[in-house]
Amino acid sequence: MKKILVLFFFVGLLYADIFAPSLGILYNEAKANLGKKIFFDNRLGANENKSCETCHNLYWDFSGTIRTNLQNNKINPPSILNAALNYIFFRNGDHRNIYDQVLKSVTSKHELGVDKNEIITKISNVNEYRIAFLKIYEDGVTFENIVDVLVEFERAVLSVNSPFDRFLMGDSNALSEEEKIGFELFKNIGCVACHNGINLGGNLMQNIGAYEEIFSNMDSSRIFKEQIYKVPSLRNIARTAPYMSDGSILYLKDAIIHIVNLQSIHNIDKKDVDLLYKFLLSLNGEYPRILK
């Protein structure tokens, strides 16, 4: 038990100051714009009534996800905004490459649900697409090229220049005093152990409730045998309700209380929740240029 507690302590110290501003990713504009058209095209879904945007909304509320859950309220689609900055993809973290993520998202029966040959045929039958692919790729429409343009679009939908980004780049006035206090609280109570790096998440796996299990005298040998999940990014978190992988929490403040109770040894009061909430608001970035 003591070894586990020491491990969590040093993990917190290790990541305590590892943050980086999001400055965007270089991408091929022609590929990204073609990927954008495909991303929004309902004709490409299995029944020609669903697109990538169906589950990853980028215009109505600028969340990169949807407000309602899919598959009998069991799946809460993650935001696509800033997903290209992640190191780990999907809830169970079984993909570590954005190309593999797009491939699975297109073909999985739980997502867009089309097989490789089907989407090649559908895109080839649209003159605009066929011509556009030939302008960019010598071999025109192939499944690999379809994946490639969707990846380039994901690279383009980064929401940068948040107040927190500007603060990290040296603008001490980018955050209010309450937001700065919330940031210090975020670090001090251990949120930073899981939510760190450029995306404040998306780069490691965690057993939700590990701290609670440790301090409830549970058999320590069981703790890391439990199912672990990808830690989500906190960028634009205020825009991406509902929360948790099953969408079971509707409001961000409730999500803060829930996670702190599960993951931290600290008790927080209403004032602390408000401060953490205000800090998280500072993670809202600007509209990506490709969507303007």
In short:
It comes from Campylobacter pinnipediorum subsp. caledonicus. With 292 residues, this protein is mostly helical.
Write structural notes for this entry:
- The chain is mainly α.
- The protein has 2 domains: 29-156, Cytochrome c-like domain (Cytochrome Bc1 Complex, Chain D, domain 2), CATH 1.10.760.10; 163-291, Cytochrome c-like domain (Cytochrome Bc1 Complex, Chain D, domain 2).
- It is 41% helix and 1% strand.
- It has 12 helices and 2 strands, in the order ααααααααβααβαα.
- The chain has helices at residues 2-15, 29-39, 98-107, 116-124, 127-136, 143-156, 163-168, 177-188, 210-214, 220-223, 252-263, 270-281; strands at residues 205-206, 229-230.
- Strands 1-2 form a two-stranded antiparallel ribbon.
- Helix 8 crosses helix 12.
- It is elongated, with a radius of gyration of 20 Å.
- The termini are far apart.
- Mean pLDDT is 85; it is low at 1-16.
List keywords for this structure.
mainly alpha; Cytochrome Bc1 Complex, Chain D, domain 2; 12 helices; 2 strands; elongated
Total count of strands: 2
Task: Provide the β-strand percentage band.
Answer: under 5%
Largest sheet: 2 strands, antiparallel
Topology as H/E string? HHHHHHHHEHHEHH
Shape: elongated
**Which runs of at least 5 residues are low in confidence (pLDDT < 50)?**
1-16
Provide a count of the helices: 12
Question: Which structural class fits the helix and strand makeup?
Answer: mainly alpha
> How much is the average pLDDT?
85
Number of domains: 2
CATH topology of the largest domain: Cytochrome Bc1 Complex, Chain D, domain 2
In spatial order, strands of the major sheet run 1-2
CATH class bucket of the largest domain:
Mainly Alpha
**In the CATH hierarchy, what is the superfamily of the largest domain?**
Cytochrome c-like domain
State Rg. 20 Å
Q: Give the fraction of residues assigned to helices.
A: 40-55%
Can you tell me the CATH architecture of the largest domain? Answer: Orthogonal Bundle
What is the CA–CA distance across the termini? 52 Å
GO molecular function, one term: cytochrome-c peroxidase activity
Domain Cytochrome c: 177-284
Binding site for heme c 1: 52, 55-56
Binding site for heme c 2: 191, 194-195
